[in-house]
Amino acid sequence: MRHGGVRPRLVAVLAALTGALCPLLVAAAPAGAMVAADDAALPLTVLVDQVAPSVLRPGEDLTVTATVRNDSSTAVDGESVTLRLNRVRPASRAELDAWATGSGGAVGSRVATVRPGLIEPGATVQVQLTVAARNVQLLDQLDVWGPRGLAVEVLSKNGARLGLQRTFALWQPDEVVPQVRVAVLAAVTGPGRVSVPAAPVDDEATTGATPTTSAVPTPGSTASPVATSGGTASASTAALESLTGPGGRLQALLDVAAQDPDIALAVDPALLADARAGGPQARRWAAELTSTLADRDTFTLPWSDPDLATLAHADQTELLAAAGALASDAGSAVASSRALLWASDDEVDRTTLALAATDGNPVVVGTGTLQVEGAVTTARASVDTPSGTVDTLVPDALLTTLVVAPDTVEPGATTATTVQRMLAELAVLAHDGTGDSHDVLLTLGRDWVPDPELTTALLQALRTSPWTRVVSASAELAADDDGADRASIPARAPTTEMLAPSVVQSLADARTLTRQFAAATATPEVLLAGLDDEVLAPLAVAWRASPAGRARLVDVVLADAEQRRTGLSIAPVSNVNIISANAPFRFVVRNELDVPATVAVSVQPRKSCLRPATSEAVTVPAGGELAVPVNLHAVANCDVTVDVKLTDATGATLAPVVTFSARVAPTIENVGTIVVAVLLAVGLVLGIARTVRRGQSALRGARRVADEDARPLPVLGGEVAPAREEPDAGADEDADADATDPGAPTSSENSP
Prior knowledge:
- By secondary structure, this protein is of the alpha/beta class.
- Helices cover 33% and strands 23% of the residues.
- The chain folds into four domains: 7-175, Immunoglobulin-like, CATH 2.60.40; 184-189 and 235-478, Glycoside hydrolase/deacetylase (TIM Barrel, Alpha-Beta Barrel); 501-564; 568-668, Sandwich (Immunoglobulin-like).
- Strands 21, 23, 25, 26, 28 and 29 form a six-stranded mixed sheet that branches.
- The termini are far apart.
């Protein structure tokens, strides 16, 4: 009977007594209950097959089914197989782990025993141990719910331990308890990609393959690149066929996800595009995946799942943006409402998170990042970086490992023990006494190979456990950061098989140059088709498994990008003599492309005697050539090497540089001009002097003469005309007197 006033005080007293008696119980444990020095060396292996019920309530019997296997070379006559129960509830995850690993010492009280009999070498015996409800003897009170240590132990007749496996019983009196919200997120990514998806093939086609231009093997292959042709499946197509076929990783992932809509999926849209253009199994898988995505929480990864650490260490925000843009264009195919980044390593550094901050989308970090000692109330954490604040989804390291690799947590783990450990861990989180709600994220990474039985059992247990509730990953993102003290983030974390930053830079440069080249043409989209897809392919996380194959792929991508940038050129130029200060020169530009291109010619001398010059932008017709004039400005005498570049409107180089030698002598023109001018001036002066000297006469100079009496000047260089005969001076005077004296007698009058 329960009494509201007495119950809290009783619980407090019991808790105090339990804490005081725990050390005594451990000290008083029998010798057979102590942990062996090395349980791994025991001759018998014990595997717990079932704990029923998984969550035990008052009035229910507890039944444990186990398999005992003799791994030794001799027969073993087991005295007993014993079920032990530790009635002390672990108060923390550390105490829980101490029980699971055996570091705490005790294995609890004996509650059931059976005798297996003789077990031959290599033989197995299945046993069932049942504890009646009255013998469970766990308190039916407030705050006593949660895990209890449970162990199946095999003892010899002399009491020596022959085998042991630990697990947990989960006690739940009939009451309401706090719940932990649990989200499960799986990455859907494929092998390293080597080619652009071709057009989808008709499902009724009988070829079973898709033409491809790839010449690079998929990750894990050591074969040299071999060109493929239509009708022959490429290495990437064959790898995808294997992964999506029966027993393949991607098919197993789809099978598990299709049966459980609570698994959120983060899909690489490039994988879906490849599958739709692949072989028959890949196309069938793509159709099933598309249908499965319609009724669940779904995210879109960047195109081709690029390695975030690789991009971050090479400071390539543009390549990440390009991957996001391609994924966004394919968003309708993935039916996603939100983009998501997924870090490449367990330990993520601050450089990678800073890159993610530039993208603006949340990032899933590894299980070695931002972990919290003890309880945590949320799976979301906001991190400040030099590029801004980034939202992160932080998985629970131990619980995630329980799903993807339970043996690394508990050697010899079975589905039953993994389920019990998962629920025990979550019960301790829910029972931390803070009253806060808790969020936990389980991430199933790129290389996860699903165990359908284990995954189904775990998700079913999470849905039915009284202290857990399955939610979507989007709900975890919507939660507030709890501000808990988390592990510090290193500036740079070590990575394995990461593509060198210099190689990433070469891919980025090839992309930039090709985009600049295409921008000069009338239809840039034609030249750029598939470029980003090709450049991103070697950056995929999957290529870390095959560095040699990735290196060959890089070479193929760089060669293809260079091939895209061919078709524009400047005709070779012979050596040139420049004797004028301003000398127009015509350069012939050739366009072998199928579309017109708008370009300019830039002349770059390597000495200052000839000034740089750039032509006006001109449009060269498709398949033709055009003479482009450039006015060369010479300022001094020299011999100079001149580089001629074909550029776009921004000055970016579009073609190989043409070089020629020029002999520059603009002073020849200037000296000639001066010499001619001096000669003309000297001639002018001499002419004037000669004219003055030869032009003087008796009629000109010191005395004045009448113009009509002046002798005419001779023709320059000719003979002087003969002088006129002068009259007698006396006669002139008499004639003058007669003319002026009216009274003087005329000549007739004076004549005799």
